[in-house]
Design a protein that fits this description.
mainly alpha
Length: about 120
């Protein structure tokens, strides 16, 4: 099952890359912005609760899709770009095993504990 989930996330990353290709931005911008959603980790400077909330906002694919759709609806490429970057980055993180965070701490995710041998 783990392989199936990773393949699904790879497909979602591919979708994000495809959607970016439909925009008028240069490819270097995709690479430059790709890790930007990790800014959500800065919330952990305050505490685990704020850290989990801020991380999850920047890594929630539903939020990414809503931002993208809003951009399509109002014909705003910047919103579309934001949604695509958030979506592709979240899929990439899931491929690596980084899921949405629990308030218990950074390594506790909906995909299991980070670093725990299976």
């Amino acid at each position: 099952m783990k392989t199936t989930l990773k393949l699904e996330e790879i497909a979602m990353l591919g979708l994000g890359i495809y959607l970016f290709s439909l925009l008028s931005y240069p490819w270097w911008l995709f690479l430059a912005l790709f890790l930007l959603p990790d800014i959500g980790m800065l919330g952990y400077i305050i505490n685990n609760r704020v850290g989990a909330l801020s991380y999850n906002i920047f890594h929630h694919k539903g939020i990414a899709v809503l931002i993208y759709i809003m951009g399509v609806y109002i014909s705003n490429e910047l919103l579309q770009l934001s949604g695509v970057i958030l979506f592709a980055h979240a899929a990439f993180d899931r491929i690596l095993g980084y899921g949405l965070k629990y308030e218990k701490g950074f390594k506790f995710t909906h995909l299991g504990e980070i670093g725990k041998n299976e």
